[in-house]
Amino acid sequence: MINEVSDVTFVCIAGTSGHALAVDEDGLVYGRGSNECGQLGMNSLEEALINNFVRLPKFSKSKIVSVSCGVDHSLFLNEKGAIYACGNNRSGQLFFSKLEMDDCGIKPTKTPVKSGATFCIADNGISVAFLYSQPPPSTPNQKYESDFIESQYSENGNDEEEEAQESDQQDSEDNDNENSRSE
After folding, report:
1. pLDDT tens across 128-155, in order?
2. HEC letters along the chain
3. Residues 93-141 pLDDT 10s
4. Which of 6, 39, 171, 172 has its CA 20 to 30 A from that of 123?
5. CA 62 – CA 49 distance, rounded (Å)
């Protein structure tokens, strides 16, 4: 348990080896770790390392529903499908051209993706946004509802489960046959 957020219920958590972000059920964002490039969205580079989770300043009128952490940048998706971004933009990973925003963005800023985003993911110098569609099921960092997981298990897992049961039954029958021969 993390003491500074022990009374907070998170609905989305993302992180890298350098920093982590979490969204609570009210859409408020918490962050910790490296802020060297402004990837925590704290509106300042004064503190390069944040050792405890802190609530970040609110930057969207709409509720934030998910976050994604790249190596040194972050993406924030709100309930209206807009994406906000902060941190390193050397490769344009904040969805801004280098002319619009060079180097580090210290405050989560609304990107050109103003609506329609359903999912976004950040990585090392790259970001991807899905607009008006869902990402493929194998895409990392997705939130799965329990009924989705159960349906995946029932579709993909039944064969293995049936094979295991048949194998157990065969082993039991083999053991019974061996026992009756030895008597």
Report:
1. 999 999 887 777 666 655 454 455 555 5
2. CCHHHCCCCEEEEEECCCEEEEEECCCCEEEEEECCCCCCCCCCCCCCEEEEEEECCCCCCCCEEEEEECCCEEEEEECCCCEEEEEECCCCCCCCCCCCCCCEEEEEEECCCCCCEEEEEECCCCEEEEECCCCCCCCCCCCCCHHHHHHHHHHHHHHHHHHHHHHHHHHHHHHHHHHHHHC
3. 999 876 566 567 889 999 999 999 999 999 999 999 999 998 877 776 6
4. 6
5. 28
Q: Alpha-carbon Rg of the chain, whole angstroms?
A: 23
Please, what is the average pLDDT of the chain? 81
Partners of 13 in the β-ladder: 22
pTM above 0.85, yes or no: no
Give CA–CA dist 174/178, Å, rounded: 6
Say if strands 117-122 and 104-110 run parallel, antiparallel, or are unpaired.
unpaired
- Give CA–CA dist 98/90, Å, rounded: 7
CA distance 33 to 15: 9
- Written as six digits, the tokens of 28 are 């408020």
